[in-house]
């Protein structure tokens, strides 16, 4: 991937979420997701906040060197915690904030304005530059990878009760899979029967490991979930 196309996976990830929610009515935006306690509208609001954070980060150049990369960034957040270290508090805040909109569809409109702006900013960013976000300094490509990984996992969260919704695109999914591979280790291999989506859902703690998974993974099974 060239410096001019580094933002393509993020563009695909955000466009994938847009394709999921763009035509949903207010009733469908209140369907459950894989994130405990969050409806589709609540989770979309959370991802909207991530796109807004992307805009801020991409406008916040920093001096290097970076203190985390696209994999170690996630290791700084123990599974079960969000970036602020308090998953339950953030979940409650996101639900209340999403409920403050006059209707769920208003969150979709804000998302469809914000996500493309974040992608344009990503495409215009210096691929050799550094930015700051969540108290860390990252290379621009590593920031884009973290944003893509989170968007892909949440895309899979969104479609729990939307069986006809499209899955994330190949480019974006590939970035998320590479992230999980990095968290897993060089010596560990995921079970061959897992699809990319199943791998991501189990790595993110959305699906439990089966007895067969435990057997195939061996000691590595204790590392799951790889991120929360």
Automatic annotation (TrEMBL):
One of its GO terms (molecular function) is metal ion binding. It comes from the Bacteria. Residues 11-158 form the Mycothiol-dependent maleylpyruvate isomerase metal-binding domain. Pfam families: MDMPI_N (PF11716). This is TIGR03083 family protein.
């Amino acid at each position: 991937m060239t410096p001019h196309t580094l933002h393509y996976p993020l563009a695909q990830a955000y466009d994938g979420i847009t394709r999921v929610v763009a035509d949903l009515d207010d009733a469908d935006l209140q369907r459950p997701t894989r994130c405990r306690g969050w409806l589709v509208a609540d989770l979309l609001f959370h991802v909207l906040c991530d796109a807004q954070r992307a805009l801020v980060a991409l406008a916040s150049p920093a001096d290097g060197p970076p203190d985390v990369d696209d994999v170690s960034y996630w290791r700084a957040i123990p599974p079960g915690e969000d970036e602020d270290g308090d998953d339950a508090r953030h979940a409650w805040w996101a639900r209340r904030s999403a409920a403050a909109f006059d209707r769920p569809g208003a969150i979709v409109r804000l998302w469809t304005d914000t996500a493309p702006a974040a992608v344009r900013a990503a495409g215009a960013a210096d691929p050799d530059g550094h930015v700051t976000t969540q108290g860390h300094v990252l290379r621009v490509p590593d920031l884009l990878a973290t944003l893509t990984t989170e968007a892909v996992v949440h895309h899979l969260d969104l479609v729990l009760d939307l069986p006809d919704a499209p899955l994330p695109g190949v480019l974006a999914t590939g970035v998320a899979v590479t992230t999980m591979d990095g968290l897993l280790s060089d010596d560990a291999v995921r079970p061959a029967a897992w699809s990319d989506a199943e791998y991501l859902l189990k790595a993110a703690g959305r699906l439990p490991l089966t007895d067969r998974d435990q057997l195939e993974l061996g000691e590595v099974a204790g590392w799951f979930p790889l991120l929360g």
